[in-house]
Amino acid sequence: ACSDSPNAANKDNAANGKAAGFLSIGMPxxxxxxxxxxxxxxxxxxxxxxxxxxxxxxxxxxNTKPDQPLKPWLASSITWSADWKTVDLVIRDxxxxxxxxxxxxxxxxxxxxxxxxxEALNIxxxxxxxxxxxxxxxxxxxxxxxxxxxxxxxxxxxxVPKHIWSTIADPATDTIKTPVGSGxxxxxxxxxxxxxxxxxxxxxxxxxxxxxxxxYTSYSGNDTQLTALASGQSEWSFVFIPxxxxxxxxxxxxxxxxxxxxxxxxxxxxxxxxxxxxxxxKLRQAMNMxxxxxxxxxxAEAGYFHPEIKSVTxxxxxxxxxxxxxxxxxxxFSVDVEGAKTxxxxxxxxxxxxxxxxxxxxxxxxKLSDPAPWSDYxxxxxxxxxxxxxxGIAAEVEKPNQNVWDTNVQKGDFGATMRWxxxxxxxxxxxxxxxxxxxxxxxxxxxxxxxxxxxxxxxATAALKAYSNATDEASRKTALATLQKIFVEQAxxxxxxxxxxxxxxxxxKWVGWPSDADSYAPGQPTQAGALMVVLALKPAA
Amino acid sequence: MTIPTSSIEQVIPGQxxxxxxxxxxxxxxxxxxxxxxxxxxxxxxxxxxxxxILLAIIGPWIAPxxxxxxxxxxMQGPSADHWMGTTHLGxxxxxxxxxxxxxxxxxGFVAGIVAxxxxxxxxxxxxxxxxxxxEALSALSNVFLVIPAxxxxxxxxxxMENAGEMVVALVIGFTSWSWNARVLRAQTLSLRRxxxxxxxxxxxxxxxxxxxxxxxxxxxxxxxxxxxGTVIFAVLSEITLAFIGITSSNTWNWGTILxxxxxxxxxxxxxxxxFVPAGLAIAILGTALSLxxxxxxxxxxxxxxxxxKTKIKTNSGRTVRMRIGFTxxxxxxxxxxxxxxxxxxxxxNGVTAVVRxxxxx
Amino acid sequence: MKFLLQRVAFYLFTAWAAITLNFFIPRMIPGDPxxxxxxxxxxxxxxxAINSLYVLFGIDKDGNIWxxxxxxxxxxxxxxxxxxxxxxxxxxxxxxxxxILWTLMLVxxxxxLSFTIGTGxxxxxxxxxxxxxxxxxxxxxxxxxxxxFWLGIIAIYLLTGPDSFFxxxxxxxxxxxxxxxxxFIPSALQxxxxxxxxxxxxxxxxxxxxxxxxxxxxxxxxYITVAHAKGLPERRVALSYAARNALLPNVSGxxxxxxxxxxxxxxxxxxxxxxxxxxxxxxxxxxxxxxLMQGVFLIITISVLVANLLADIAYLLLDPxxxxxx
Amino acid sequence: xxxxxxxxxxxxxxxxxxxxxxxxFPVRRKMRDLFSKKHDAVHAxxxxxxxxxxxxxxxxxxxxxxxxxxxxxxxxxxYPRTSGDIRLHGRSTAVKSGSAFRxxxxxxxxxxxxxxxxxxxxxxxxxxxxxxxxIHGHAGKTAEDLExxxxxxxxxxxxxxxxxxxxxxxxxLSGGQRQRVAIARALGAEPExxxxxxxxxxxxxxxxxxxxxxxxDLKERLNLAILYITHDIASARYFADQTLVMYAGRMVEGGDxxxxxxxxxxxxxxxxxxSAPDPDRLTTDIDASDEDRGNGxxxxxxxxxxxxxxxxxxxxxxxxxxxxxxxxxxxxxxxxHWAACWLYDExxxxxxRPGSAxxx
Amino acid sequence: xxDPVLEIKNLNVGYGLGEQGVRAVRDVNLxxxxxxxxxxxxxxxxxxxxxxxxxxRLLAxxxxxxxxxxxxxxxxxxxxxxxxxxxxxxxxxxxAETAIVxxxxxxxxxxxxxxxxxxTxxxxxxxxxxxxxxxxxxxxxxxxLVGIGPDRMDAYPHQLSGGMRQRVMIGMALILQPQVVIxxxxxxxxxxxxxxxxxxxxxxxxxxxxxxxxFITHDLSLLVEFxxxxxIMYGGRIVEEAPASAIYKDALHPYSKGLLGSFPALRxxxxxxxxxxxxxxxxxxxxxxxxxxxxxxxxxxxxAGNIPVLGRPGTGDGKTRSVAxxxxxxxxxxx
Lengths: 541, 361, 326, 360, 335
Ligand SMILES: Nc1ncnc2c1ncn2[C@@H]1O[C@H](COP(=O)(O)OP(=O)(O)OP(=O)(O)O)[C@@H](O)[C@H]1O
Ligand SMILES: Nc1ncnc2c1ncn2[C@@H]1O[C@H](COP(=O)(O)OP(=O)(O)OP(=O)(O)O)[C@@H](O)[C@H]1O
Ligand SMILES: [Mg+2]
Ligand SMILES: [Mg+2]
Fold this sequence. Notes:
The complex is a heteropentamer of chains A (about 550), B (about 350), C (about 325), D (about 350) and E (about 325). With about 550 residues, chain A is α+β, with helices and mostly antiparallel strands. Chain A is built from 17 helices and 22 strands. In chain A, strands 8-9-10-1-11-20-12 form a 7-stranded mixed beta sheet, covered by helices on one side. In chain A, helix 10 (about 295-300) packs antiparallel against helix 12, helix 14 (about 430-435) packs antiparallel against helix 15 (about 460-470) and helix 15 packs antiparallel against helix 16. The longest helix of chain A is centred in the C-terminal third of the chain and has 18 residues, at about 475-490. Chain D has about 350 residues and is of the alpha/beta class. Chain D has a domain at about 15-30 and about 40-260: P-loop containing nucleotide triphosphate hydrolases (Rossmann fold, 3-Layer(aba) Sandwich), CATH 3.40.50. In chain D, the strands form 2 sheets. An 8-stranded mixed beta sheet of chain D has the order 6-7-8-3-9-10-12-11, with helices on both faces. In chain D, strand 11 (about 330) and strand 12 form a beta hairpin. The termini of chain D are far apart. Chain E contains 11 helices and 13 strands. In chain E, the strands form 3 sheets. In chain E, strands 6-7-8-3-9-10-12 form a 7-stranded mixed beta sheet, with helices on both faces. In chain E, strands 2-1-4-5 form a 4-stranded antiparallel beta sheet, with helices on one face. In chain E, helix 4 packs across helix 5 (about 130-145), helix 5 crosses helix 6 and helix 6 runs parallel beside helix 7. Chain E starts with a strand and ends with a strand. Chains in contact: A-B, A-C, B-C, B-D, B-E, C-D, C-E, D-E. The interface between A and C is large, with 75 and 70 residues. The complex binds adenosine-5'-triphosphate (2 copies) and magnesium ion (2 copies). The site of one adenosine-5'-triphosphate (ATP) has 13 residues of chain D, from strand 2 and helix 1. Chain E: Keywords: ATP-binding, Nucleotide-binding, Transport. Chain E: GO terms for molecular function: ATP binding.
């Protein structure tokens, strides 16, 4: 009876010494239900990232080097018009679906059409206009410039086979039990305990990967994921590891590695600019000057997770370097309590003992809030609280639950809060989330898209528009310089750390991982570029 | 959480126990109240609880550090400065534990009091009034019994803007009365049929007086046990809520400590001092409360009380184990205990030679 | 018979009330599932996705809560629990059926074990007072006072590791599909050992205590003395007379506790990342996933009620006094 | 103790009277009854009439379950009655609670069977007695008045010296002492009628007599009307002026105590008296097959036998007994002696032979 | 008088030991003869039940037997001391030689087992060789003996009336045909009609089967009617022992007299009842000397100082009776 068991094969593999043939990938995303729909953000395929092993995009984007053009993938050439409203694509020959059928331009048109027609699937809200094909060429036009979203349009839309998807009644709710994609892997088994992908035998348009089997596990949370990483049960993951040196690296110093490259998406302290006296940029600047980012980096972010932002422009090291305006090149944050005090007294504030009083003589106090479960933010707030006390601002840390916090932040009912910005291939997303006047809503109305601090600057709004619609590099540069100037001088949000797309991995069985020296792809297993990593892996000697 | 399995419920079938007089202690004017304290379990439990309450009151004053203040020593093990080490921010775990006691005790007691008051009002009314009122109140408590308490508490606290201690305590109190109400109703039903309740009515007492002065005093043990049970439940719930980060409580409690410790992977970083003390504090408090509950059980049911004394010492220092069904035999000599011998003849007025004494009894 | 009918009416009412509450309470939580999803991904999901998600979840139109309520009942009667938001577009019923077996296996079996062991030890402790069993109570009480998530975490820390027999979490070895075969079952057992042990340690004391107390109470009943007087072997007196009677009140407690399996131990599932239903509930709570919350609540409600019914029936079967003739 | 207001009123005045008192306890309906109109009920008391006279003790005798306690509780207005009437000083009363109930209590007090259960274990003797005095306004105005009244009460029930008992808890007293406290509590209301429901059956043989003698003494000194409920017919002879015999919820015989016990008329009374232990009878006399005295179990009160309720057990049963409810018939040997038995209906006896319808 | 079956020698039974302990049965000597009904009377708390349970070692904790012997004379073989038997042997002894009927039959029967089970499990334990059907047949036979139809075999205790349950207990007591049946207030919970029925049946069975009975009650008039000899207990001691008629007509001990004077008589002339003044003694603080002396109307000097010993009184029928009272000096002690 055992021979026909679905588990027999898996076990036999292990028993036959092929154990080394697989790679265990874990994510702390708790339980999953079987859903291999690559378009749905909450499907298990998306949550764990295996959708990118089965389905591929037209081009691959390396988050860690956002200024680089996308690497042609299913499209062998990607050409944008100068106004970024039209893209011309040449679809690669030789790519086949895992059921053997060839991948054609029609499949690409079908996929983009599918997204255009289904609002529910258009998660990037891309304004498609026309999608046409001719031979192996595809042309897509848009109603607005796609400069800031090019990586999404090309790099984050999985191409699906028309011959299968055209028969699916509702592509938004279908769970795609047997996914057929163009990628090197096919789904072998799906179980609550783990999902196994196996390498295709043939038909892949590149060299087949060395890793014959990918085993995905979803752990209930960070702690269980970490335990699995530390014990070697998980070989690749993206998770916050407190004191990673001791809890992870030290368990196997030769093989356990952490890599955390920053990307163009940041975390910082949003300040409610409508509240007095925080509507005063001078006060915000002074606050910015006393925040000890190094402490936060080491104590709250375990020295790696949200790489410390050093540039005063709020752009992360590495990924952001190319975008920093000349004016701010080399200008970095440093804790300067005295400078802050001078600034404040110059602006009419008084420091009465260790209480800061505003112009009207009222003590300056602020409430910092973030949901309790986010312990890195909480730690950050504790440190900020401590830092602010140096210039006499009494801060109180509140821990509303997540729903309440969410609602309050959107409605503008908060003092200051740690939150993230959107991320993208340019600094646009960062600045937009913080300063875009178009996203601003009156206090009490939910601002869902950004500008939670109600920062009011028509200049910034205009610069944002100019940047995204520009047709030449020079005007982009000017617009970006304006944005940076406003961001630095007005300090609508105090940048703290950046997102990373790194990984915790083990070189025990597999080598060839991306690293600082060779950051050829994002390290995070759920990113579209994860496929590049898997394809690059080689068995350890 | 498992359901509270205090055996109080099980005592109900026995009924009589509660009203039964103390056997074998008629002469002593020692009141029943103090008798409770002579129970070793009760004494131990109360002493420990007393210490906790004391700490809850003075904890914040005697704490050597501000529990939230960052210090220079990060993640240090126990030392003379920091008895229980420090956190990743250099906060003093010992101070956090001390300061956290207040919140734990506060929530436990407020929730216990709220739940107890509700359960008494609902349970006793249902049991005493009977009829439709009983049916309605019983249905109410059953609905509350069916709804899973902890998830409900989680939802309700997340509805609240800023779920502070008071809110958490009230929510726990308002959601955890039903079990006790059921127990109380059953007890009241059995008490209501007691002669002394009928007798009080027959004397002409008003209903509210019958309930308050005749019924309630006889329910004290059940109420107390329900209270203690709810306190345990409330403490565990509060800590659980804090641990999974549901409550927004800005004050310290042991759950908060565990939350931080877990979030920072204290154990994986070998910082046991951060994780272990709070857990032990909970366990010891829980044990103390359970001991009090055992003692109440024993107090209520004399059978359980005497069950404790299974070994007795003879005068000669030998210990004998008691067994049901096989009474121990200390000696089978046919000699009389009292060494009494007959005295030949006694004339009614005469004086007799006294030769016997009672052997020590 | 009449007794049963009355109970059934009572259950129906309770079920109605509980389900109604279960419908309304989650809806009082501020925020909505889309926000919760965005927040969950902390920047990994950009805010542009908001609109598409509203459309996807079908909550872009404002509904009247009463019509939703009526609709909910209609769906319930049709056996449709809606689609989960967290696992969109998986139907809630599928999410539940995936996870309930895990919970039943882990917590259910553990509860039964705990009851059996606890009762057994309780019988011993109650019958052989003054022996080693006396030491049992203080120890188990202490363990039962330890919050079990704490115990679980300590157990993971102490007992799991790269070379340990005990896995640190999960329901079975990665890649094994639930099946009744020689691969899955041993692995599932192995994975359930630590969580089961944690639950066992912290719940067994309650059973020991109540069984011991009942044994003590029953032991002084006249019929026990009569059984001794009849010269019956000790085993028979202890089991067939004392334990049999002492068991009665505990059986209903046991049945009730079966009802609390789902709602009661979800922290164990969280700590051990066990793919059970309690864990689903926790996720649903975090994600404002009303349909899933309602589904889990429905299961809890039904299981508590069924357990109650079982308790009633068990009592009816075990205690001849409640069986009415005719 | 303050003097009873109408102590001068002549003995023999009717204080409390029950006429056709009936109490049916509804039985929980079963499934199969759902469709039938019939409501089952325990016919605990059916058509009971009795009078309590000042200065007299009326005994109510009957086997367990015959409805004696129910009669007492009905008279104390602790249960609502199904039908019939209770007259206090000739006035029909039906009270449930409130001040009317308390006014009734002031005149009719009840003593319960079990002295261990009828005192609340958490209250002192002082509390019990004080409440009784206060409710009925006999506590006086000052603390001294109260103290005096309490002492008087305890003296009255021979618990002397009073201060030794006042602050004790019930469990610190012996059974006899407790029953005395219960009596004192009843007396605190200064009632005219005392309903004593088996007041000594739970007491030790050696102290029963003391309590009975106390009750008799109270009857004489306070001119109380006492209902004495017992299953021990010998004590009824000893203590009561009148004796009524109950069987399965109905009165079967009544009359002067001496007459009822010495020349019982109803076959059930005879069975009762024959069954009582008799030291004068020798062991060897015992005849296990006492068919002539009647045997078997008491009947079901839910479906009581038709006709005379005793007929299934009666050695003298006649055809009429199985169908017609017997009425009270004068026996004629002593005034006031009656029995509800067709044996004393000459016409019936003439037509049917006694014992002819014995079922066995 | 016939041979003894059971001799109790200086039995002492107490509850607990040391400071907390009380002595509930003190130096009791009593002999039960073959085929007789021995009545044991005394007010509540005088130690009757303690004596009955003590001599079979069935006393629940904290009861302890502090001394004495209970010599049993089996039908065949040598007499032996029951108190020194091993656990296994005492299990065999129980019910086969001495059966007990307790006060409350409802509480004596296990509520969850059918009465047939409870009848046959005795047979199973004592006569393992019997087959299942033989056991059932025997049980049925016993029920018939006590007047219960065999159709009641499968009834549960709660389905039987109080009288029937008590008869089941009696049937169960006789199922192994023991030499001695101890009955501790077997009928107090029943009403007089039922009481007489059951006792009548018992006496009849005794005549047929020839066992001896120890009959415990506080109802002295019942004992006088039903037993051959009566022993009166007071404060843990036997104060008087005599043939039933002798006690009834001419009780020697003032306590016995008091007891007799506490029962109103149903027949004959109405006599004044004397009763016994005072309340029963507290076992913890027993009066010195004769424990009855504080309540005794005839107490005199020696009573307070010395404990009278049970012995044959010097009066006429002194050979058949004994008493422990300073009013009746003893000639020879019993035991
Ligand atoms: N509250 C009640 N509900 C239903 N039936 C009742 C109730 N009280 C008494 N009965 C029934 O009424 C009948 C008479 O009961 P009652 O207590 O009056 O008898 P009794 O003569 O006092 O008996 P006893 O001598 O045992 O005290 C019994 O069959 C009893 O079961
Ligand atoms: N478990 C116990 N612990 C202490 N003293 C006890 C215990 N059981 C009985 N006694 C005492 O032992 C004495 C004798 O009790 P026993 O039950 O033998 O009396 P009894 O003559 O059978 O009385 P009754 O007629 O009430 O059954 C009593 O004074 C009683 O208080
Ligand atoms: Mg009664
Ligand atoms: Mg007794």
